[in-house]
Amino acid sequence: MKQITTEVAMKEFGQQLGRILRGGEVIELIGDVGAGKTTFTKGLAIGMGIDEVVQSPSFTISRTYENAESIRMVHYDFYRLHDAGVMKQDLQESIEDDKTVTVVEWADIVSGVLPDDRLSLRFTSPTETSRSVDIKAGGSRSDQLKGEII
């Protein structure tokens, strides 16, 4: 369990992971609204060398960003959907692309599409200003990532 006490520290945690991503990874973000998922993802993008400002995809369902090495980050947020519909196929294509880092929030409706080898981060808010992040890995690549960030 990683303890985060500031918004800056949450972004730095994302940067730490972003620096070691090379494409093909799947990251599942679990947590209530306001738990720090988008702040973490902003840091992730910075760590990956993405210059664009990351915005929450809550209303657009997904947003795509790319760094100078043509590695993409696709950020999905299924919070507003009751059925993934065609977005399930879009997600599957993203997951299968080895030049794409796939970040998924509110993944309950697409859990059958997510690979076992994914990094799952569960964000909780023990206090108004602090966050706890429980990190689980489900395969060789995600195990390696987990080992490098804890």
Tell me what the structure shows.
The chain is of the alpha/beta class and 150 residues long. The protein has one domain: Rossmann fold (3-Layer(aba) Sandwich), CATH 3.40.50. It is 30% helix and 26% strand. It is globular, with a radius of gyration of 14 Å.
Q: What overall form do the CA principal axes indicate?
A: globular
Name of the CATH architecture: 3-Layer(aba) Sandwich
Given as residue ranges, the uncertain stretches (5+ residues, pLDDT < 50) are none
CATH class: Alpha Beta
> How many H/I helices?
4
DSSP, total strands? 7
CATH evolutionary superfamily: P-loop containing nucleotide triphosphate hydrolases
Mean pLDDT: 92
CATH topology: Rossmann fold
Helix and strand composition category: alpha/beta
List the strand order in the largest sheet: 1-7-6-2-5-4-3
Observed structural traits:
150 residues, alpha/beta, Rossmann fold, 7-stranded mixed beta sheet
Write the layout of secondary structure elements.
Blueprint: E1 2-4, H1 7-18, E2 26-31, H2 37-48, E3 62-66, E4 72-77, H3 86-96, E5 100-105, E6 119-124, E7 131-137, H4 140-149
Parallel strand pairs: 2-5, 2-6, 4-5
Antiparallel strand pairs: 1-7, 3-4, 6-7
Helix pairs in contact: 1-2
Give a concise summary.
The protein has 150 residues and is α/β, with parallel strands linked by helices.
